[in-house]
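Justification of computing resources. Each target in the renewal requires a structure prediction run like the one illustrated here; the chain below, 68 residues long, is used simply to show the kind of job we budget for.
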Amino acid sequence: MSKIALVIYDKCRPQQCEKGICAAANACARRLITQEAPNEIPMTNTALCRACGDCVRACPTGAVELFS
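Resulting structure tokens:
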């Protein structure tokens, strides 16, 4: 089974990212993490995730994790 990145909503604090824009979303080269508006919790498109880990490393609160 392959891994996917997921946002852990209890840990996510988008207001801690610059201007409320999700750092993990900005780090995803494939744009699989989307945020409707600043300071909103982002969503992941798990169907297309390749588990590269860029979003995991970019998240300042550790709210994005890889799961299998």
